[in-house]
Design goal:
Length: 165
């Protein structure tokens, strides 16, 4: 029997003022779909990180573009796509950075993609430089996290909050 997927779409200027709107929308959809609050918090943080990357890196300072957030939810999972039409980035170069070193530094930034990958069950990047960057993140309703995953997630979330102050 096919699963019915509900789709939601938000297109907003890439401005940090809009992060609350994006987080609220994603959170309300996840809650309405029956995800537990701890999953909702993780989904919201991962989406916030993806959108923050767009705001900081996708568009030159003198040119603002849009962030498109596409959400699909069915009985098994919630999928969020964050799409921009900015300059793109080298996914492999970012993933090759030493995350442990970055965690021990007191510098801002550099943990967003790692956070997304730790908080969500699947994360994929499709980058067409100068045309489109698409980050696809999936959280499954019934996939259980290990205690080790939860501990690392907690450490990353705390570090992220510390660096944003």
């Amino acid at each position: 029997m096919p699963r019915k997927t509900e789709q939601f779409l938000l297109v907003t200027p890439s401005d940090s003022k809009n992060l609350v709107l994006i987080r609220d929308l994603v959170g309300k959809i996840a809650l309405r779909a029956g995800f537990p609050q701890d999953y909702v918090d993780k989904i919201q943080l991962a989406v916030d990180e993806a959108c923050t990357n767009v705001i900081r890196h996708a568009y030159p300072r003198n040119r603002r573009g849009d962030i498109t957030v596409r959400i699909g939810v069915d009985s098994r999972k919630l999928k969020v796509e964050v799409i921009d039409h900015g300059k793109g980035f080298d996914v492999q170069a970012v993933l090759a950075k030493d995350v442990n070193h970055r965690l021990n530094e007191l510098k801002r930034g550099g943990l967003g993609i790692y956070l997304m990958r730790m908080l969500m069950d699947e994360v994929r990047f499709d980058v067409k430089p100068g045309k489109e960057t698409r980050v696809e993140m999936v959280k499954y309703r019934d996939l259980r996290e290990t205690d080790e995953q939860k501990a690392l997630q907690k450490k990353l979330i705390e570090k992220s909050h510390t660096l944003r102050r």
